[in-house]
Design brief:
The complex is a heterodimer of chains A (268) and B (165).
Chain A (H helix, E strand, L loop, with lengths): L2 H13 L9 H33 L4 H14 L10 E2 L2 E2 L3 H14 L27 E5 L7 E11 L2 E11 L8 H6 L8 E7 L2 E7 L8 E6 L5 E7 L17 H9 L7
Antiparallel strand pairs in A: 1-2, 2-3, 3-4, 4-5, 5-9, 6-7, 7-8, 8-9
Chain B lengths: L1 H26 L2 H18 L9 H18 L2 H5 L16 H11 L4 H11 L5 H8 L3 H18 L8
Helix pairs in contact in B: 1-2, 1-3, 2-3, 3-7, 6-7, 6-8, 7-8
Classes of the chains: A alpha+beta (268), B mainly alpha (165).
């Protein structure tokens, strides 16, 4: 399923889905008023409680009470000192974001000889896709139990033709044990495809060729003994960009396996 | 207060239907969708008097809605309360009939929440990458990867080749 197919399918599906009656405006207003009253009561209660505690404890414990007050206020929905560099699961500044940027630099250091990766190349097809350069990196807490996922992506090519390189490093926080071809198959649910194990030094790297991939042609995967999983993916085109395809993958399967085995992508 | 309520009520009457459709695609259940919309508008009401840029009201409300969905999903609310999660282990749908189109929505509900949100905002709301990133409060790069992963996951659930329209 491609983007436009999903766009059409969603509309068809919604057209075919019976809708319940419109929501009631009065009920909505009542709910908003109840919420307002509840919040006022809560905040008043908190203010009273904090004042009592402050008077009782005195100035000796003032620094600690300041922290307690912040926690109480946060619990009531009044967020103080919020770190706006991390929203939910994606960090845009800080140690994890720096690791993501480091991963991008490592990927750039792997661009095959004869190919380039401009930092300002953007999609050319749909204006809605023009959200900035194709080159990017990110760090997101997307894995179970708070594990961090680092990803980086670049276009690579020459003579106005472009392919795609993508690297993902999972610092798992659980007991994931999938390895080899089973691990490779978890990447974007690419399916079984044709997977071979390729030795690189003392490591066995799974290289999976996607059967009918519209975004990724091949992915190499390796899991370190500490659970860290590295995926390097490539495609001979950069999907949904309008860019002219390079026509060949940047790496041979063996070279892709060597990249996945390279400790520079471990990020530890 | 009357003026505040009048303006808020008019906005709710005009936009709740659209927001409920988006919420339905996010959570896969009309009752939950209405709860999501109500919770989102309650949060909007709290900030109603402080909103000065009314041309951005839709984007702000949409952002509240999506954040509410993701927050509640993170807490396990939808996983615990899901009422329409019937198994999809029958013959693979071709998406041509009305029934099969509805099945698409059930499959969409199986895509991880953040990926689902990216798909819904990009392909149902037709938001740009930048507007989607703003709604999800993440980077454009994150939107790209979540969209790619969401499409890949959805494709894995659908039959191949996909029917055309």
């Amino acid at each position: 399923m491609h983007e436009q197919e999903l766009r059409v399918a969603l509309r068809n599906a919604m057209d075919a889905t019976p809708r319940p009656p419109e929501m009631n405006v009065s009920e909505m207003l009542d709910a908003a008023h109840v919420d307002r009253g509840r919040r006022r009561s809560t905040l008043a209660g908190i203010a009273t409680a904090v004042a009592v505690v402050l008077i009782t404890a005195g100035a000796v414990f003032a620094p600690q009470l300041h922290t307690v007050a912040r926690q109480i206020s946060a619990a009531a929905g009044e967020v103080f000192g919020q770190d706006d560099t991390q929203d939910g699961k994606t960090q845009t500044a800080g140690p994890h974001a720096e690791l993501g940027e480091h991963l991008l630099n490592q990927l750039l250091s792997s661009v095959p000889h004869g190919l380039i990766s401009p930092d300002d190349l953007e999609p050319t097809d749909n204006p809605a896709n023009r959200g900035g350069p194709l080159r990017y990196h990110q760090a997101s807490q997307d894995l179970p139990n708070g594990g961090w996922r680092y990803t980086a992506e670049i276009p690579v090519g020459k003579d106005g033709r472009w392919a795609r390189l993508y690297v993902e490093v999972d610092h798992v926080a659980d007991s994931s044990t999938l390895a080899g071809c089973q691990l490779a198959q978890t990447f974007w649910n690419v399916g079984s495809g044709g997977c071979i194990m390729t030795p690189v030094g003392d490591k066995q790297i799974a290289v999976l060729t996607v059967a009918d991939g519209d975004q990724i042609d091949q992915v190499a995967a390796y899991r370190y003994p500490d659970g860290t999983a590295v995926f390097i993916a490539q495609a001979k085109h950069f999907a949904y960009t309008g860019l002219t395809p390079l026509g060949t993958e940047p790496f041979t399967p063996e070279q892709l396996a060597a990249q996945a085995a390279d400790p520079k992508f471990r990020l530890r | 207060m009357k003026g505040k309520d009048d303006g808020f009520a008019a906005y709710f009457a005009a936009k709740s239907g659209t927001m409920r459709g988006t919420a339905y695609l996010l959570c896969g259940d009309w009752h939950r969708a209405e709860d999501l919309v109500q919770n989102a508008f309650i949060k909007l009401y709290r900030a109603w008097n402080r909103i000065t840029e009314h041309e951005k009201l839709d984007a702000y409300t949409r952002q509240i809605l999506v954040r509410t969905f993701l927050d509640e999903t993170r807490r396990g609310f939808f996983r615990r309360e899901q009422v329409t999660d019937e198994p999809i282990d029958r013959e693979a749908p071709r998406l041509g009939s009305t029934e099969d189109r509805v099945v698409l929505l059930q499959l969409l509900a199986k895509v991880p929440p953040r990926q689902r949100a990216a798909l819904v905002l990009r392909f149902w709301e037709d938001l740009s990458l930048e507007d989607t990133a703003q709604a999800l409060r993440c980077s454009v790069g994150t939107v790209k990867s979540q969209t790619s992963r969401g499409l890949a996951n959805l494709r894995a659930l659908l039959p191949a080749p996909t029917a055309t329209y």
